Amino acid sequence: MTSISLKGVTKIFGSKCAVRETDLEIESGEFIVFVGPSGCGKSTLLRMISGLEEATGGSILFDQIDMTATPASKRGVAMVFQAYALYPHMTAARNLSFGLRMTGHSKEEIARRVGRAVKILRLDDYLNRKPAQLSGGQCQRVAIGRALVQQPKVFLFDEPLSNLDAGLRGSMRVEIAALHRELGNTMVYVTHDQLEAMTLADRIVVLNDGRIEQIGTPHEIYHQPKNIFVAEFMGAPRINMLPGVAVEEGGLFLPLDPEQKIPLAAAPSAVKAGDRISVGIRPEDVSGSPDSALEMRVDFIEQTGAMTHYFGRVGRHEFRVASSEGLPCRPGERIHLGFAAERLHYFDGKGQRISPETQR
Amino acid sequence: MFRKLTPYLFLCPAMLIIGIFVLLPMASALVISFSDYNMIEAHRFAGLDQYRRLLKDPFFWNALYNSLLYLLVVVPVLSFAPVFLAALVNRKLPGIAVFRGIYYLPVVTSLVVTGLMWKWVYEENGVLNFILRNLGLMSEPIAWLATPSVSLFAVMAVTVWSGMGFYMVIYLAGLQSIPKALYEVAELQGVSRIRQTLFITIPMLRPYIALVAVISSIAAMKVFDEVFIMTGGGPLGQTETLVFFVYQNAFIEFDMGYASAAGMALFAATFALSVLNLMLARDSGYAKR
Question: Across the interface, do B188 and A73 touch by the CB < 8 Å criterion?
Answer without folding.
Answer: yes
